[in-house]
Amino acid sequence: EVDVKVSNFMNLISFQYSMKWDSTVLKLDTVVNFTDGLAGFNDAAVNTDSGRLLASWFDQSISPNTLSDGSTVYTMQFTALNSGNTSIEFTEEFATYEVLTDQEEEVGLTL
Hints:
By secondary structure, the protein is mainly β. The protein is built from no helices and nine strands. Strands 2, 4, 5, 6, 8 and 9 form a six-stranded antiparallel beta sheet that branches. Strands 1-7-3 form a three-stranded antiparallel beta sheet, with no helix packed on it.
């Protein structure tokens, strides 16, 4: 299991990003444990394909959302397919990073 956690998540209304890993080493089985702190953020907000995950969330009410540092946004559950190592990394290969505040200010994604 891999928990995706946040820090400095203050007054946000939207984000999008993608992640990747070696699909010959790991198979993503499911994404679970979505935070209750973000209205509308659930399994419909993530798109998974072989070796990648795209996440996108937008608060329809345009209300600012803040999560405590270290909060888990969701958990990725994998099965190891082969011995070996792979990193799970954020990438703009499949989606451009976008993080917006309630003032519609782009604040970027810090990894």
